[in-house]
Amino acid sequence: MYEEILELEKYCNKIGVVTEKVGLLDGWCLYFNNGGDVVQHSGSYGSKNGCVEFGYTGFTLDFKAMSLKDAKGFVRHRKDSLNNKVGGRRGK
Questions:
Q1: What's the pTM?
Q2: Residue-by-residue DSSP string for 7-44
Q3: Cα(85)–Cα(43) distance, rounded to whole angstroms?
Q4: How does pLDDT run across 61-87, given as a tens digit for each residue?
């Protein structure tokens, strides 16, 4: 269940995007260094259709369902921004 976010985590590791995985509800959240995140759980947009949901990235795609293919493209193109250390997990 929620294989897409786990595949996205592997992809992030492969291309050098730092994430921290934590359990969230019945699924997962990947936190980025810039304070943004991506989630997939029973309450996230599109989760029943194999989509993930980004949040707090500062881009217009926040809080919308996104396919794994598009999520990988976003992470690849925004790698530097996502890795920008601003305190990590919500300022931690």
A1: 0.90
A2: HHHHHHHHHT--EEEEEETTEEEEEETTS-EEEESTTS
A3: 28
A4: 899 999 999 999 999 999 999 999 865
